[in-house]
TrEMBL record:
GO terms for molecular function: metal ion binding; poly(A) RNA polymerase activity. It comes from Lentinula edodes. One of its GO terms (cellular component) is cytoplasm. It is an enzyme of class 2 (transferase). This is polynucleotide adenylyltransferase. Residues 273-335 form the PAP-associated domain.
Amino acid sequence: MSPQTTHQHYRDVNSASSSPTSQRLRQLTKQHFVAELSQCLFDFVIQLLPTQEELAVKEDVRKLLERLIRTIEPDSRLLSFGSTANGFSLRNSDMDLCCLIDSEERLAASDLVTMLGDLLERETKFHVKPLPHARIPIVKLSLDPSPGLPLGIACDIGFENRLALENTRLLMCYAMIDPTRVRTMVLFLKVWSKRRKINSPYKGTLSSYGYVLLVIYFLVHVKNPPVLPNLQQMPPLRPIPKEETHMGGHNTWFFDDIDLLRQRWHSENSETVAELLIDFFRYFSRDFVYNGGVASIRAGLLKKESKGWQNEVSASRYDARERNRLCIEDPFETDYNVARCVTKDGLYTIRGEFMRASRVLATRPERAILALADLCDERKDEDLVTAPLFYAPSRQVPPQTPYSVGSRYMNQDPHYRVNKYLFARRRNIWLQNEVSGLVRHLLKHLPQTIHYMRVNWGWGWS
Ligand code: ATP
Ligand code: MG
């Protein structure tokens, strides 16, 4: 073939691949993939919801603990918050309990923790760990497995944490507005973040609460048209005195009449849960401004400077414990960064995982279930990925990403230019490992995964 013919052939092939027919085909494949992925996501999270039996046992445990606490503080109530109360609970989630004491004369939280710890140790089979001197004094409890709770139970009891009860109610209201899309997305992200080992504030990554806030921020402020309204900015139906909308100096007002809201407000966004998820991963991989941005479900994207949360690059450039790498404003305690425990390596790992997820979804395998299995493939390494030292934190973009190549931010960064070669090499090695790991994984686990899903989830395969 002469060079001219080769060139012509190349042009023919290229123009054929972008012809209206092939574009239409690609579009159809994409539509098919997202439709199938939405169904898979939905079926997947349903399998992971707590059973009625588990919920009943947990309620019995709450009542038992309440009875015992009342022997110390007769005017107390023990209330659930967190996932047990907001609709984002997975099978075997921990129980977050808050003790409220409706009397002026009450014991100090640290004394209560000590006394309650002693009492529970004497009267119950719980393993008890009182933490009276923690920043927020709590009693930690755990129970060994039993027929009703094959994996046991873990529970924290805190005191007078009224803001936590309110933010639980706020999240529950968001879940109720569009349960199919919001709950599916949140529950999936919780499973995904646990399987990928990036859901542990003690190790420098983000709590479930933080991930839920990211999802709501995305659905209220990033998606256009929005999937959810901003409940904290909706005006009340009648004037409400300040005492009723404020708690300890924090404005806790939000529109909570969800039945009425559902009659009056409808989202114009009709994207499927899979489309939203794909966009969520893309947004937090490459578009969110980690350097200077604060995700606020109350007020949208804020600047770190406006809150005094900018990280001090010169003072603690390589300090892995540095605060405010990732900034998520608490909906009511607006001077509190929910992601303050996320370290430099933690953020680097989390972003790497967002990017990995984006890549997995972009490959659009023939069966959406394969993408799902790959997304939630358990990360074997318990440790965080170490962020390279040569990144200036303000320009930090992990190497494991197709998006970072030649990106606007990177090209402006002198550290990037100096280390361009090293950077490209690391990325290539990482990509090679990823691809061969993926192929190995699929070859090794595919038959078992298909068999498991057929047998346990009754999935029909043609
Ligand atoms: P899981 O099912 O994984 O336990 P969850 O929905 O219960 O998830 P948690 O992260 O356990 O979420 O948080 C439970 C509650 O604790 C939240 O509703 C919030 O009130 C409070 N909380 C958790 N993490 C933080 C944090 N970093 N800052 C402030 N409050 C938090
Ligand atoms: Mg919890």
